[in-house]
Structure prediction request, 157 residues.
Amino acid sequence: MIQTLQDEIVLLQSQIYNIDEHENQRLQALITSVVGIGQASAQAIIVATNGLKEFHSSRAVAKFLGVCPSDNDSGSTVKGSRAIVKSGNTFVRTTLYMAAWSAKTYNNACKDIYTRLRAKGKPHKVAMMAVVHKLITQIFAVVKSNTMFDNHIALAK
Prediction:
């Protein structure tokens, strides 16, 4: 019985993570080129999203990871507050939030978003979730375009 279960575990692990080592290293290099994303964050994103293979937009990735805002409404008269969906992987969302701390300081586009939202009076956590969403957009862009991240592109705009 134990041997059967161990065989099933090995089979499931091979099905869950079906990215070869070369592809994993390529994705890791691309994702870690985004300023603020480290090795642990990159690996968590690769594993959780299967290397972003099945996604066609950064919005789909953000929704899958659970960082999109949603309205808490009840009919047409009761308006609730907006909050993130929290439907995705908690570990990946937490890892991205911690990466956003570094990105708001060193990533030019993320720094711009954070300072702009804080100047408008938005709370810290709202601005940080915007930074997380920007990081997801940047990660999706570098993986799909197969180019390294350039931190100075935000300055050109």
